[in-house]
Amino acid sequence: MTDAHCHILRGEKRHFLCEPGESQIGANDVVFYGCHPWLWKEWEGTDSLRGRIASNPAAGVGEIGLDRLKDREIPEGMRDVFKAQLEIAAEFSRPVVLHGAKCWGEVVKAVSPYVGRIPAFLFHGFSRSGGLVPDIVKMNGFISVGPAVLNDHAVNYRRLVRSFPSEIILIESDATADNASEAPSIEEIARKTAEIRGEDFASFKASIDANATRFYFTA
Ligand SMILES: [Zn+2]
After folding, report:
1. How far, in Å, is the centroid of ligand 1 from the Cα of 219?
2. Residue 25: its pLDDT value, please?
3. 190 CA to middle of ligand 1, Å?
4. Vertex 17, ends 192 and 146: CA angle to 5°?
5. Counting CB atoms within 10 angstroms of each CB, which of 100, 121, 190, 199 has the fewest?
6. What's the Cα-to-Cα distance from 75 to each of 26, 140, 205, rounded to whole Å?
7. Coil, helix or strand for 179?
8. How many helices (H) and strands (E) does the chain have?
9. Three-state DSSP class for 32?
10. C-alpha 196 – ligand 1 centre gap (Å)
11. Strands (E), 110-186
12. Which domains does the chain have, with CATH numbers?
């Protein structure tokens, strides 16, 4: 299956890897380069990212975005770094993986001028903001459902996941070197997602693979 968002390889058929470091990329894997919003102060400037994107014709841009987990106010510098990276994605017409913890409305607002110039958007770790789903659909956005769906207490998240249109759902582990041993498999997350949506697993699986292909290849 496809792991729509991870930072390490985990033996899936295909991984969408954000800043994977030294990983040995498989033939089906796709790499995304970008400065995570938590690291905006370490942003090296546009030349470095533009160079990596220009020399890797198959690479996307991510994970980039805004974040309100650490501070209530989004720093201006974080917005500038996000915008500079969106410009590069638009210039090279590459798909983008988005981060928007506790500020998805702000992220949707920030990316809307790029709709059309950026071919597709993946809303990774998306939660709480069901009202934005129609906007996400309109911008050729996709939403990846993550390990939180396995938590029986995550009632609101499961309700949100039930509301997503089938044609925009992907599945992600968000596995990193640090959480590798506890991160659940894509199959486990996908089975639970299909179950709570009342969908047949085989057809759900086929649909998320087709969605992953559409996200990456609409460019
Ligand atoms: Zn991540």
Report:
1. 22
2. 87
3. 18
4. 20
5. 199
6. 37, 27, 39
7. coil
8. 7, 8
9. strand
10. 24
11. 121-124, 141-145, 169-171
12. 2-217 (3.20.20.140)
The Cα–Cα gap between 98 and 184 comes to: 21
CA of residue 163 to ligand 1 center, whole Å: 23
> From start to end of the chain, where are the E strands?
2-6, 14-18, 30-33, 60-65, 96-99, 121-124, 141-145, 169-171
> Ligand 1 center to residue 183 CA distance, Å?
12
pLDDT cut 70: percent of the chain above it: 99
What spacing in Å lies between the alpha carbon of 172 and ligand 1's midpoint?
9
Cβ-based neighbours of 83, under 8 Å, separated by 6 or more? 110
210 alpha carbon – ligand 1 mean position (Å):
22
Return the pLDDT at 200: 97
Q: Residue by residue, what is the 3-state secondary structure of 71-120?
A: CCCCCHHHHHHHHHHHHHHHHHCCCEEEECCCCHHHHHHHHHHHECCECC
Contact, 126 vs 9, CB < 8 A? no
**pLDDT of the residue at 168:** 97
Q: How far is CA 116 from the centre of its chain?
A: 18
User: Torsions phi, psi of 203, nearest 5?
Assistant: -75, -30
Read off the pLDDT of residues 132-178 as tens digits, 9 standing for 90 and up: 999 999 999 999 999 999 999 999 999 999 999 999 999 999 999 99
The predicted structure's pLDDT at residue 71? 86
